[in-house]
Amino acid sequence: MAKHAQTRKTWEQPSAASAPASDRQAVYVTQPALPELEAFLPYLQEIWDSHILTNGGSMHRRLEAALCAYLGVEHISLFCNGTQALITALQVAGLSGEVITTPYSFVATAHSLLWNNLTPVFVDIDPHTLNLDPARIEAAITEKTTAILPVHCYGYPCDVEAIRAIAERHGLQVIYDAAHAFGAQDASGSLLRHGDLAILSFHATKVFSTFEGGAIICRDEATKRRIDQLKNFGLSADGTTVEVTGTNGKLSEIHAAFGLLQLQGVDEALEKRRRIDQRYRAGLAGIAGIRCIQGVGETVGNHAYFPILVEPEFGVGRDALFAHLAAHNIHGRRYFQPLISGLPMYREYPSASPANLPVAHQRVEQVICLPIYPDLDDATVDFIIGLIAGAAA
Ligand code: T4K
Question: Looking at per-residue confidence, does 8 or 325 come out higher?
Answer without folding.
Answer: 325
